[in-house]
Hints:
Helix content of chain A is 72%, strand content 0%.
Amino acid sequence: MRDKTEQIIQSALQVFIRKGFQATTQEVANEAKVAEVTLFRKFGNKQQLFITVIKSVLEKKFYAHLMEQAKTHDTEDFLRSIIDNRLNVLSKNRNLVKMLIAENLMGNLPPEINLPDMIFTSLTHGIDQHAQQNNLDIDSTHWARQLSGIFLSHLILPNEKLYNELSEGERNRLLNKYISAFLINE
Amino acid sequence: MRDKTEQIIQSALQVFIRKGFQATTQEVANEAKVAEVTLFRKFGNKQQLFITVIKSVLEKKFYAHLMEQAKTHDTEDFLRSIIDNRLNVLSKNRNLVKMLIAENLMGNLPPEINLPDMIFTSLTHGIDQHAQQNNLDIDSTHWARQLSGIFLSHLILPNEKLYNELSEGERNRLLNKYISAFLINE
Amino acid sequence: MRDKTEQIIQSALQVFIRKGFQATTQEVANEAKVAEVTLFRKFGNKQQLFITVIKSVLEKKFYAHLMEQAKTHDTEDFLRSIIDNRLNVLSKNRNLVKMLIAENLMGNLPPEINLPDMIFTSLTHGIDQHAQQNNLDIDSTHWARQLSGIFLSHLILPNEKLYNELSEGERNRLLNKYISAFLINE
Amino acid sequence: MRDKTEQIIQSALQVFIRKGFQATTQEVANEAKVAEVTLFRKFGNKQQLFITVIKSVLEKKFYAHLMEQAKTHDTEDFLRSIIDNRLNVLSKNRNLVKMLIAENLMGNLPPEINLPDMIFTSLTHGIDQHAQQNNLDIDSTHWARQLSGIFLSHLILPNEKLYNELSEGERNRLLNKYISAFLINE
DNA sequence: CATGAATGAGGCTTCATTCAT
DNA sequence: TATGAATGAAGCCTCATTCAT
């Protein structure tokens, strides 16, 4: 049954988000209401299960819409849109992202699911594309690092409010602060 | 013997840096060339050992010099000095810090060794102090987040070179970029 | 397989009878010719295993026939039958009972397998029932204590012969002595 | 220091009463405020310590006055005095006695501190002596068993009140019941 | 005499995984 | 396809005891 496989993936995701790769196959099996051994029949071993689950969710949640904003002509709008969008996505998937960064930091993940790298690389590409399309000379690497820094600080530092819980006013004020640091520089 | 205790702490530190809290007491014992049981006699349990080891290293490596720079009168110098100093310390203790951030992200650490919080808080205090002493109106929280973001990006993103491996020229160019984002804003 | 579970229970019983709750899970596993871990899969932990095993044997060996004798009309016959029956059962399960009393004395048992209490309570009930059915005024608590005392003395004091090894003549003489203490009193 | 040895014995007694022979040397050392190793220097090993401690307390609490009552001429008084005295001593040393019986039941004690045997034997001797002095024909073994049964039932069965907490009236009523069972028999 | 330091042996328990159906 | 049963390996921790001072 495709059904059962999908159900395992969903349940496993929840468990992995909560506990990372350390989560036990038993916990996953319980959450999925499936015999432990079924996981092994379907995914070979825990690592494969983990990778499958994470890849599947990364595709669904992160790859989509990645480069849409690059087309915007105004750089301020481009930045605003990219920061807002990424902070939204990240804060909505906060626990997943935290877990993935943690596992990455501990070197437990294969390169194919290196989230920080993915974020950084896709930012660099987006910025490059924007620069090219608008004939701008931008230090895309530095911008990407700065943006990533912003995103990471939202994920890792203590927060009063998550980004997606801010009012529109607060959100705009915050975005303005972030954006100005990029624009005046140039 | 203080000697053997110290030796355990040093060895445990190396093991914990490599493997995080997951490291086994056996690994620690092997590295320290000590019977496993000795760890328990001396530290009670694995968690206590971990906390003791981490606290000790945090005190030695991070608390020192924390507020020195606040006294600087020129804000640019203040920022330069604080960024340079923190990036240096962090990149020299890269693996330790990565591990601590990872464990923190997974919620495995007690508040007493919450490194991201410590970094953020001490930055905020330092900036506040600088602002007060020089009669400046600074959004210290925002600055602290921006600075933390810079530090985190250096720790987490893929790097060509570590900060402490940069030439003086590269280092200065980098610092200038970072600093300008703060100054022009105000 | 119900088979293996039953086999574990039987082996565990033998080991627990010999060593009490102190018996190690390893000993049980060896006796049952099963991997140690199997015990935990099946019973959760040592305590649960112990309780399960003991409950099962108590049900099989002690609860049966408990109140049969109460129906007897003649009080002497009632006493004779109850003493004979209980001494038989107890002396046949001597080591089990001794172990349970020992663990109970040390406060190591949950109330559900408190053997002394069970014996005393069921005696009291049986006597009450006999008294009621035959319209007698009996101090059932005192009788139950006296009977329990007899049983305990057989279990705990040094014995030349176990009750179940006595000849019929010896057994009758003994029973007569015990019974007369109850009857003449009233 | 005799002092420290005595202090260890006293503390060890408390711990052993609470936990039996299972009590750890660490617990004993803590209670005695002495280094664990001191126990071994003084007593060789845990078993020796245990035996020493128990022998010492048995001498102090049980051997004294054992045969005093045998001299009484009236058998009823003799029984009353012996039952009252033993129940008093036993209920005052309830936990110690329970522990000793428990360890005895589990076969953990050397014959020299077999408490049930000691009680039974001394009762038999006392009764024999009383019979001899008063020219009576008593089945001393049976009496001793009956008496022991009474004592054991007080130690092991659930109790509303300990013997030493009974009012004088209650105590007398109880003693009368017990005694009559012996006298009318003959 | 007393102790701080250290340990080998062993206990309970959990984990990912295989076997047999 | 799915699972109930079983397990080897390993983890944390405790125990009685010895060593060296």
